[in-house]
Amino acid sequence: MSTLIVCRCEEVSLETLQKTAYQYHCSSRELKLRTRAGMGVCGGRSCRMMIEQIATAGDNEKNYETETIPLKYQPPIRPVPFGVWGGLSDE
Amino acid sequence: MNKRIYTHPILENLSTNEEISFSFNSETLSAYKGDTIATALLANQIRTLRYHEESGSPRGIYCNIGHCFECRVTVNDYPGIRACLTLVEEDMVITSGKKLPQPLKHGGEENA
Amino acid sequence: MLDAMIIGAGPAGLSAAISAAQHGLHVEIVDEYYQPGGRLLGQLHQEPDGEWWNGIEETEKLLEQIESLHITIHCSTSVYDLQKVNKKWVTYTDQGNWESQAVLIATGATESPTPIPGWTLPGVMSIGAAQVLTNVQRIQPGERGVVIGVNVLSFAIARELQLAGVDVAGMLLPPPHLLSKSEGVPQEVLSSLLRFSHLAPSVLMHRGAPFVKGRLAKNLVTAFYPEKGMGVWGIPLQLRRTALEIKGKNQVEGIRVAKVNRKGELRNAITHDIDVDFVCIAGGLSPLAELAAIAGCKFIHEDALGGYVPVHNEKMETAVSGLYVAGNITGIESAKVAISQGTIAGLVIAKSLGARMINGKINEALQEVESRRAAATIQFHPHVISSRESLYKTKKTQ
Ligand SMILES: Cc1cc2nc3c(=O)[nH]c(=O)nc-3n(C[C@H](O)[C@H](O)[C@H](O)COP(=O)(O)OP(=O)(O)OC[C@H]3O[C@@H](n4cnc5c(N)ncnc54)[C@H](O)[C@@H]3O)c2cc1C
Ligand code: FES
């Protein structure tokens, strides 16, 4: 059977993610940095929930009360074409 | 097969549109005005929009609304254009992303 | 400088622009899609009274008002950043930047996929992709396909595919793995299915609904659920079949299917292959809140609302001054609710910028949201009402 890919952009499999999560007992952020899952062109829009789910799978206590999204979003959230970085071009 | 839906039991019939021509990977194709690049290609039975940069696996549209970035193509030399969000235009030159050479990976071998 | 910039031309953003402009505000809308309407455009389902909810017509109604109020919509414009600079909001887009006093984020929802081996093949798409192809762009996603994932959205869209002449060979469950959770468990799926039995009254109501009062009853229903599935509008709804793998070389050619027991476990895996040329994956929806996150909103996780939502109150205010949210970014609900939420946001923004005599209208709009929420034909989660109530009671945005 072909592998189960979780992050399509970087082609990271469920197996790799689970192994890494188990081996390093890591947070979703660390899991992302170690495997590159969620770091591709789409900015993790498609797989961030799954990465979080894998990272927290071992914990019984899910800490939802932190008031922040576990995998931080950073601008730009869409690729910026060259030449756009400038002053205000419109009113 | 990806067929056009001309008639529909509830929605209005598709008003057949103006034909326009464009090219995809050097092949001249035609589509309707109002098609996105993605639907223009689907109407020509082309589903593969690019190949994954590292593994070379074929990719087509996934979300069709701009979220997943799977449909990136190069349009008139601008790379990274989402085919599902971009209307096709007369004489547009579209090319699909290819697997990139990976000189540093796998001991430098470069095959598909 | 604009009074308010509205991000997203879906039902929430459009209706917010309308109510704000009606109270004298100078607003503009940006949207990265090539036409306005958001996810409303593709919607097509039958209400219990037999009337069709036609998203294209509903969008046109909103656009008529937008036009008569001379509101500019900038389509094909992607917002990549949103910051407050010197007490003004700056919306950064690939077509230039805009300054405004207030910003409404109405970016809607995104689909959360359930991955399946082989799902990167061309011809595999999200269920929403198939909806847009079929109802908006008028091209079939393929000739014959399956829908993986049984939920209110995939149920409605399977019907839409069929109306457009596409052969839906079946609706199946996703393979049982960590990421498919209860979506792979026949019992859980069946009980959620019965909540929207009004979408297919003739079949589901009669077969199942009267039984599903308790846990035991639910087990009984799944026990009696025909192993080969049953037809809903002629589409085999197979709660005891799971999609193991999507097969194909350069595109989808088929799907490998296995039997599961009532708990969704694979029984010594007798498999067979079905020939299909497309596959839709329906994993559910979650709020698309990335811009709210970079603009500094706090978040709360609510299953009933689809995941992480920016903390906000029933007036659509966030804790960040001058920043508002409306529509599916606040929780997954139907377009009618999104429209009413947009109306509230537009009114509340107008009030904050000095419009007077507006409280009565805000109260009316607040009531409209509640009544539309209670009457929704498509309700994405059974606890949406109580979840909203507790969010608005406990979370202080000021
Ligand atoms: C694929 C899909 C299918 C759905 N089908 C149904 C259905 O059949 N029935 C039903 O009742 N509900 C359906 N829904 C739920 C739907 O979200 C609501 O019905 C309703 O459309 C929500 O309205 P909204 O205005 O909040 O968001 P939307 O209608 O989603 O509009 C948001 C808009 O914001 C734009 N946008 C997002 N990010 C950016 C950015 N960074 N820059 C610029 N523009 C941006 C998008 O292009 C979009 O046009 C569906 C949702 C999805 C995602
Ligand atoms: S198909 Fe997902 S961004 Fe175009």
UniProtKB/TrEMBL annotation, chain A:
Lineage summary: Bacteria, Bacillati, Bacillota, Bacilli, Bacillales
InterPro entries cross-referenced by the UniProt entry: BFD-like_2Fe2S-bd_dom, BFD-like_2Fe2S-bd_dom_sf
A Pfam family this chain is assigned to: Fer2_BFD
Protein name, UniProt field: BFD-like [2Fe-2S] binding domain-containing protein
Domain BFD-like [2Fe-2S]-binding: 5-54
From TrEMBL, chain B:
Keyword presence, Oxidoreductase: yes
Domain of life assignment: Bacteria
This protein's record includes keyword Oxidoreductase: yes
Pfam families: Fer2_4 (PF13510)
Transmembrane portions of the chain: none
GO molecular function, one term: oxidoreductase activity
Record keywords, A-Z: Oxidoreductase
InterPro entries xrefs: 2Fe-2S-bd_N (IPR042204), 2Fe-2S_ferredoxin-like_sf (IPR036010), 2Fe-2S_ferredoxin-type (IPR001041)
Name used for this protein in its record: Sarcosine oxidase subunit alpha
Lineage: Bacteria, Bacillati, Bacillota, Bacilli, Bacillales
From TrEMBL, chain C:
Coiled-coil residue spans: none
Lineage of the organism: Bacteria, Bacillati, Bacillota, Bacilli, Bacillales
PANTHER family named in the record: ANAEROBIC GLYCEROL-3-PHOSPHATE DEHYDROGENASE SUBUNIT B
The protein's name in its UniProt record: Sarcosine oxidase subunit alpha
The UniProt record lists the keyword Oxidoreductase: yes
Taxonomic superkingdom: Bacteria
Domain FAD/NAD(P)-binding as annotated: residue spans: 3-342
Keywords, alphabetical: Oxidoreductase
Family matches, as Pfam families: Pyr_redox_2
Gene3D superfamilies on file: FAD/NAD(P)-binding domain
KW Lipoprotein (keyword) present: no
Stored InterPro entries: FAD/NAD-bd_sf, FAD/NAD-binding_dom, Metab_Enz_Cyan_OpOx_G3PDH
Native source species: Natribacillus halophilus
Sample GO molecular function, one term: oxidoreductase activity
